[in-house]
């Protein structure tokens, strides 16, 4: 079962965070309220998922935990960078930002 969740987290991190939030008390243990996990679910899903998985059992995060969270952040930023660099392939979008 953990292998299936790992595959789900790799393919659809938003769905994995949502499943953790609904069916386990893990997200409530890690975060105090609902606002920060919601922002993470929307904007940085891999970072939020890594933070939940690292901080849930350990309580405090050590160097390797922060390294894992940083790798999640890099994966999220890579997705945003790829979307930004491929914006010219979207109809109606141009590479230049200035208008005449």
Describe the structure.
This protein is mainly alpha-helical and 100 residues long. It has one domain (2-84). Helix content is 72%, strand content 0%. The chain is built from six helices and no strands. Helix 2 packs across helix 5 and helix 5 runs antiparallel to helix 6 (63-85). The longest helix has 23 residues, at 63-85. It is elongated, with a radius of gyration of 16 Å. The model has no long low-confidence stretch (mean pLDDT 88).
What are the defining features of this structure?
about 100 residues; mainly alpha; 6 helices; elongated
Q: Which outline best applies? A: elongated
Q: How many structural domains?
A: 1
- What is the mean pLDDT? 88
Sheet with most strands: none
Strand content: under 5%
Based on DSSP secondary structure assignment, what is the total number of beta strands? 0
Q: Unreliable segments (pLDDT under 50, ≥5 consecutive)?
A: none
Q: C-alpha Rg, in Å?
A: 16 Å
Order of helices and strands: HHHHHH
Count helical runs. 6
**N-to-C CA distance:** 57 Å
Helical residues, percent: over 70%
Structural class by helix and strand composition: mainly alpha
């Amino acid at each position: 079962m953990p292998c299936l969740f790992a595959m789900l987290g790799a393919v659809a991190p938003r769905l994995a965070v949502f499943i953790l939030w609904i069916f386990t008390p893990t997200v409530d243990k890690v975060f105090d309220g609902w606002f920060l996990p919601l922002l993470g679910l929307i904007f940085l899903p891999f970072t939020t998922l890594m933070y939940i998985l690292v901080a849930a059992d350990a309580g405090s995060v050590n160097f390797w935990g922060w390294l894992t969270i940083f790798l999640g952040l890099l994966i999220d930023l890579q997705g945003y960078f790829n979307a930004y660099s491929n914006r010219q392939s979207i109809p109606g979008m141009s590479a230049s930002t200035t208008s005449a």
